[in-house]
């Protein structure tokens, strides 16, 4: 009876592996999602390929088949993480909104995204610890973010033309301010939250609807 049970388990395992081989995009997505968590928790140096493989629905051999080696996998995780946030940002249809409403939407989206994706924030923190050693190899990420600045610039110029925004601000400075507000609420959650009675503990999405939007719109406001 035990032998039949073992055989059945092996058959199920084999069938599952075959199914994943038939869906390479699903295999890649599962590996990347799992690898993001491992790298975010342990950094590049501390992350283990064995641990990633054990947490996925595929084998270590297939992991190397898709990504080559640990560094290439890490690079793909970085690329996919930035691609995800920029793709989601592009789906906001900001061109249909008034400039001030569009700017509010960007703040709301950025804060909510970062709060919901702490692994992304940890990856960025790890890259800064490494002085951008890996991200510098991904020129396409630089272009991705340049596109985000161009979109922000269009909104800003429309706001200036409508008399809503003052005209002495660089779009990159607006992006920096939004990113700083969103990033801090996640990156400093443990320390700031402990020092100041858990102020940042839990989801701080309300920052998007109050403090974050208020700060950015006051910064941009044309008082003339």
Give a structural overview.
- With 224 residues, the chain is mostly helical.
- The chain folds into 2 domains: 68 residues, Tetracycline Repressor, domain 2 (Orthogonal Bundle), CATH 1.10.357.10; 150 residues, Tetracycline Repressor, domain 2 (Orthogonal Bundle).
- 76% of the residues lie in helices and 0% in strands.
- Helix 6 packs antiparallel against helix 8, helix 6 packs parallel to helix 9 and helix 8 packs across helix 9.
- The radius of gyration is 22 Å and the shape is elongated.
Structural topology:
Blueprint: H1 2-21, H2 24-46, H3 49-55, H4 60-67, H5 70-90, H6 99-116, H7 118-129, H8 139-161, H9 171-187, H10 189-195, H11 206-209, H12 211-220
Helix pairs in contact: 2-3, 2-5, 2-7, 5-8, 6-8, 6-9, 6-12, 8-9
Spans where pLDDT lies below 50 across 5 or more residues = none
SSE order, one letter for each helix or strand: HHHHHHHHHHHH
Number of separate helices: 12
Average pLDDT, all residues: 85
Number of strands: 0
The radius of gyration over CA amounts to: 22 Å
CATH class descriptor name of the largest domain: Mainly Alpha
Per the principal axes of the C-alpha atoms, what is the gross shape?
elongated
Q: First CA to last CA: what distance?
A: 84 Å
Derived structural class: mainly alpha
């Amino acid at each position: 009876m035990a032998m039949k049970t073992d055989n059945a388990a092996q058959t199920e395992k084999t069938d599952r592996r075959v199914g994943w081989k038939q869906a390479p995009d699903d295999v890649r997505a599962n590996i990347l999602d799992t690898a993001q968590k491992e790298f975010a928790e342990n950094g590049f140096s501390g992350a283990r390929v064995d641990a990633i493989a054990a947490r996925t629905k595929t084998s270590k051999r297939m992991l190397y088949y898709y990504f080559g080696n640990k560094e290439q996998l890490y690079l793909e995780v970085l690329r996919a993480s930035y691609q995800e946030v920029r793709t989601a940002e592009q789906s906001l249809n900001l061109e249909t909104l008034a400039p001030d409403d569009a700017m509010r939407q960007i703040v709301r989206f950025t804060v909510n995204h970062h709060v919901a994706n702490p692994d992304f924030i940890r990856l960025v923190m790890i890259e800064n610890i490494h002085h951008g050693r890996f991200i510098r190899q991904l020129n396409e990420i630089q272009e991705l973010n340049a596109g985000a600045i161009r979109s922000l610039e269009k909104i800003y110029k429309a706001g200036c033309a409508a008399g809503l925004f003052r005209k002495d601000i660089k779009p990159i400075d607006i992006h920096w301010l939004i990113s700083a507000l969103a990033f801090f609420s996640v990156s400093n959650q443990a320390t700031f939250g402990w020092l100041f009675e858990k102020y940042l503990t839990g989801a701080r999405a309300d920052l998007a609807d109050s403090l974050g939007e208020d700060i950015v719109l006051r910064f941009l406001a044309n008082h003339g």
